């Protein structure tokens, strides 16, 4: 497989995992006919890019509603998040709800069973409500022109943080989609982190020049992924003995909430 075809397959894998966009047009005829599983772990170098892309799409919607349509901030950012959910399918939010529901059980085995149940309980509903309220509240205090960089930053950092979970934890199950990430391949992982660092450096320059000269308000959002990773990794290890796909999704959602909350300090 040449480099271009490999890139196309990696991009299709990343987009199909984190969005609801059609991706088969990216594949060659041979790749479409191939019945082997897609290279999930190899595609992780593109995950932060996809996170930034979904943030860009949502930010454009929010900017249009507020700056062009003059819709009030709260309904505008609510519709912005609705557009993001339509784009992503609420993949990470589902993980947060499932992980929250598992806290109603006592044993590790029962917790893992609950996370595989498609039904949602009161803990999951509360977690989703708090998540949405945090995002809406944080985004509503930012100017319309800040929505694009804010959502791009939170989307990128959420996926970059997610990648670290299978680095610091072992899989909680011997099967499942998330099991394919262990062990994390070194080269794609390093590419993902390099892309994230360069992107965040550009974002820091952009945000500082346009919105906030305050050092604390600038650095605080960049510290949130470390806090999120530490809390989620310890929680997952204590409750499940490792990570699952729901833990990865919950980590991304919690990181987004914390980063956006921190960005509201720049208002």
UniProtKB/TrEMBL annotation:
It is a multi-pass membrane protein. Pfam families: CobS (PF02654). GO terms for molecular function: adenosylcobinamide-GDP ribazoletransferase activity. It is found in: Cell membrane. It catalyses: alpha-ribazole + adenosylcob(III)inamide-GDP = adenosylcob(III)alamin + GMP + H(+); alpha-ribazole 5'-phosphate + adenosylcob(III)inamide-GDP = adenosylcob(III)alamin 5'-phosphate + GMP + H(+). The chain crosses the membrane at residues 46-65, 120-142, 148-172, 184-207, 213-235, 247-265. Its main location: membrane. The keyword Lipid metabolism does not apply. Pathway: Cofactor biosynthesis; adenosylcobalamin biosynthesis; adenosylcobalamin from cob(II)yrinate a,c-diamide: step 7/7. InterPro entries: CobS. The keyword Ribonucleoprotein does not apply. Its EC number is 2.7.8.26. Its cofactor is Mg(2+). Keywords: Cell membrane, Cobalamin biosynthesis, Magnesium, Membrane, Transferase, Transmembrane, Transmembrane helix. Belongs to the CobS family. Joins adenosylcobinamide-GDP and alpha-ribazole to generate adenosylcobalamin (Ado-cobalamin). Also synthesizes adenosylcobalamin 5'-phosphate from adenosylcobinamide-GDP and alpha-ribazole 5'-phosphate. This is Adenosylcobinamide-GDP ribazoletransferase. It comes from Acetobacter thailandicus.
């Amino acid at each position: 497989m040449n480099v271009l075809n490999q890139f196309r397959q990696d991009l299709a894998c990343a987009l199909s995992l984190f969005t609801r966009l059609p991706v088969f047009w990216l594949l060659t005829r041979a790749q479409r006919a191939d019945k082997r599983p897609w290279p999930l772990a190899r595609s992780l170098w593109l995950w932060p890019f996809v996170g930034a892309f979904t943030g860009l799409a949502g930010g454009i919607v929010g900017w249009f509603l507020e700056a062009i349509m003059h819709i009030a901030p709260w309904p505008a950012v609510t519709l912005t998040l609705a557009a993001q959910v339509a784009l992503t399918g609420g993949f990470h939010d589902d993980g947060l709800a499932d992980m929250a529901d598992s806290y109603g059980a006592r044993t590790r085995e029962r917790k893992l069973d609950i996370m595989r149940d498609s039904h949602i309980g009161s803990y999951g509903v509360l977690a989703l409500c708090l998540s949405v309220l945090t995002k809406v509240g944080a985004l509503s205090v930012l100017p319309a022109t800040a929505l694009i960089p804010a959502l791009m930053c939170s989307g990128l950092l959420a996926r970059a943080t997610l990648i670290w979970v299978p680095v610091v934890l072992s899989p909680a199950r011997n099967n499942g989609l998330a099991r394919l990430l262990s062990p994390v391949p070194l080269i794609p992982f390093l590419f993902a982190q390099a892309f994230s660092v360069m992107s965040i450096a550009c974002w820091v320059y952009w945000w500082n020049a346009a919105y906030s000269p305050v050092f604390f308000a600038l650095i605080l959002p960049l510290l949130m992924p470390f806090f999120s990773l530490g809390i989620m990794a310890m929680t997952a290890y204590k409750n499940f003995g490792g990570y699952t796909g729901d833990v990865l999704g919950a980590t991304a959602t919690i990181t987004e909430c914390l980063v956006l909350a921190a960005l509201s300090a720049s208002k």
